[in-house]
Each structure stands twice: as C-alpha cells, then as structure tokens.
Amino acid sequence: MKKAFAIAWLSPILLAADTHYVRPPETCTNTYAQHPFTSWETASTNLQWAVNAAGAEGTVLVSNGQYRLTNNIVLTSAIYLRSWNDGEFDPTNTVLDGQGSVACLYLNHTGAVVAGLAFTNGNGVGGANDNYGGAVYIGGGTSSGGTLSNCIVAGNTAVQQGGGIYARGNYGLIINCRVESNTVINAGDRGGGGISMYGGTIRGCLVRTNVILASASLYTGGGGIASRDNVLVDDCIVENNFTTNMGGGIFATEQSVIRNTVVRNNHATGVNDVQGGGGLALRNCNTWVEDCQIEDNYCARNGGGVFVSQTANGQSSCISNSTIRGNTADYRGGGVNLAPGSSSWVVTNMIIGCIIETNLTEGSGGGVFVGTGGILMDRCILRGNQAASEGGFRNMNPCTNFPTIIRNTLIAGNIADGNCGGARLRYGAIMQNCTVAGNQAATIGGLWMDGTNLTEGPVTVTNVICRYNFAGETEVNYTVSDGAVVAYSCTWPTNGLTGPGNIEADPLFVDTNAGNYRLQTGAPCINAGALQPAWMPDGMDLDGRPRLDRFSRTVDMGCYEHIVSGMLLQIR
User: What's the predicted TM-score (pTM) here?
Assistant: First the structure.
C-alpha cells in the first residue's frame, strides 16, 4: 500500500507546440504580456488570459509565485495547466489565492488536466457554483469531469459541500493531492470537509485536518471525504478530520469502493441514534471496503471505526481484509456498528477476513454490534475489545430473510465490565466453526445465547470450541436460554445442552498464553465436527485452508483446521 504524497503520476512532458506561459505580475516589470503568451518573455500575468489563448488542447505553464485571484479560473476544454519550475512540479510555491472572497478553479472537461498547483483562501460562498467547492469545482453533470493531480488544496471554505474540492461527474479524477485544513460551515446533503465527490476517483491522496463545523441535516458528514454514486477511494490516507455529524473520515452513500486506504484518528460527534462512524459511515449503499486500516477513530454515538446504516431493502455492504483497531464509540460498536433496519428486508452485510481488535465502547459490542438486519462474518479475529457489556460481539433483533451468521472466527481476549465477554447471540443467530476463548466478564465469560425467532428458530451453535472464558476467577463459558441449540462443540460443562456430539475435554490449544488457538496433534476436537454441506465444500478456515480434509472429508471443531505434519507422497 503506497502512502507517499506527490507521486509524479503526471510527469513533465515534452512541450507541445501550442504552449502558453504565465508569470506572476511582480516578475514582469521589464517585459510586456503579449497575446498569445507563447514565451516566458511575453508571458501573461493573468491565468485566465493564458487559458483562453490555449484554445481547445493547448498547454499552459505557470511559473512559481503567488497569484491573487479576483475571479475563479474557468477551464472547459482539454487543456493541460501545470506549474513549472525548471521542468518540475512546484505546488508548494505556485499558489492560487482566492483571497477569502472567490473560489479558485472551475474545471469541466474530461480531457482537462490541472497539475502541480496550490489552492488556498478559496471561498465557495455564492457565485455560479452555489456554495459548493471552496477552492475547486470539478464537472457539472454525469458525463463531465477533469483531472486534478499533484496539487495542494489547503485553507479553503465552503458553506455546504466540499470545503476544498467539490466534484460532480463520472470522469472526475483527484490524484496524488494533499487536501488539508479546509472547512464546511453548515453541511447540506453530503458534506465533505475536504472533498465532496459524486462519481469519479480519488487516488493516492492525503486528506487531513478538514472540518465540518455544523450540519443542516442528520444525514450529512464526511469530515475528510463525502462520496456518492460510484466513487472509488483508493490508496489514500484520511486522518485527523472532524465532523459534528457522521463519518469523521469518510461518509459514503449509494455505491462506493474504499480500498487500500488508511482511515485514522478522525472524529464524529453526532449523538443521534442514526448517526455514527468515527472513521467511516456507510449509509443507504452497496459499498465495499477492502484492504483498509481503520484505527484510532472516535465517535460520540455508534461505530467508532465503521457505522453501516441500511435504510432500504436489498442493500448490502462488505468490509473485507481490513484491520479495525483502537477505535472508540461512546454508545454501541467500538469497532463496527451495523445499524437497525427492518426485519423483513433482505440486507446481507458482510465482514470477511478482518482483524477487529482493541476497540472500546461504553455500551454494547466492543468489537461488533449488529442491530436489525443480516450479517455474514467469516474468517475474522475479534480480539482484545472492551465494552460495558458484550466485549466481543452482539446482535440484537431478528431478520427473517438473512440471519446473523458467524463462521471460522476467533473471539478471544475480549472484556466486558458487566455481562458476556465473548459474544451475545440472539434471535436465530448461527455460529459455526468458531473458537471462543480467553474472554472475561463480570458474568458469562464466553457465549450468551438467548432469544428465539419465529422464522429462523432459536440460536444454533455448531462445531464451536468455547473454553477458558472467565467470570471473575471462575470459568463460565456460556449461558443458554429460549431453546438455543449447541451441537458438536467443545465446552464445559456439557450437561443441559440439547444438541448431540458435545465434548468436555481440554481442546489442547497450541499455546493459550500466546493466543495461539490452533489445535495440537492428538487434540480431541480434530475430526470431531459435523459436516455442513451448504458451505463447507468451498469454505476455508481462519488460516485460509480448506475447511474439509481432502482425504477423510471430515472437519475439526473451532476456527482452525489441524494440519498433520509429515510427508505427502504423490502416487502416479
């Protein structure tokens, strides 16, 4: 994952024949600007004059210096506008200054490229762009756009959206830019203290210390980035941003992809139940979060790391191969909060292959909290999370079309000040091939299974190892009520459990003290699980190995399949 600013994606090129030049006014005292500004000696002192002279596909080179704007630059053709300091980009010293009264740039052509400039003191209040885009406004419709590359966008202000940049169009591209210390005064619709984008790509950017001061609606946010309608956020750092609403780092609606991105130390202070997401807030969307680091974020309500709010049928978001660490929520879901929806909807949110650890909440679900709506959590680690109750995981209300399913997951070392250190499973929740160990609480160290769903039935737990969970100094691995079924599992004690195949033996973990919950050779849990044809033929354990033994087609209890050491002979 590359995280360096100012990568020269658009490197210096051979100058086109149609090249036009711009110099600051104070450097031109002994020369005269002469249209069409085709040399440094006859360079324009006004960027807009040079852009107009460049026509449809010209190049405009801007010498380093301070350019104080009285109107924003308008670029609506396929021009290459870039800074020039002996052939290099120089955004630090080539500055377009809106002087606190005007925005700096309006960019609207899919073939246009603006590179290596700094935009500051832009003010998106009023004018043609209606309070959007403090410094830069890109696009204007579904087929519009433009490219902003290797730029610095800092210290700008907008009233409603895009304190630094507002982009609207499927072909907008913001690449290798630094977007920092921009402000939205009173967010409307989507917000975006740094960037607000409707369609397009944000890649390789550093987005930090941007702020939303207030919000006109509950459903706005994105202290760093607000995205909507097929936005890709890729290989970025989003840090130290703030919003009074939701999505301290990123607020995504409708369909977005967020990947290879670090989201850290962002704050969201909205306290309404429909608000959350210190790092990410995903609302009304089919959004993918892939290969991300979401850490040390804070939310005053729900989801210190990630808040997912689905408010319509048929939506699903997926968080995969990501680390969600050290986040805090004051109410529910220190790491992740999947917010309530309707029990009749088909909502299939997924958390796949993630590490969710050392998150904290003063309420329920230190690692993950699930309200109404389905979830599949597979091949995850919930470790070292802490809450007032349910230190690792909690699900709430039933979902008739897609239950809560937890598979191949390790829930270990979580702490609850009150009830249930490991996981509370309710209303038809399903746990399969998981390991729940080393959790602590005042009462119920491991699993709390309660509540029945008229459609899905009671909680069912199969092929699970649940041992060495403590309430105080006493091993208390579970409590069962409302007909919950535990089968083919290793726990203690087993008396009173209604399912078959349960054992009380020591599971023989490799090294409990070191947190290695794989099975030793000869462990009683090896090949002791029940086959589940619906998912096991293509299923994998927590180490990514096939869930079924290739020869015996048997399955172990717990989240890891035991691999027998020795020689494998190939018979021809």
Answer: 0.93
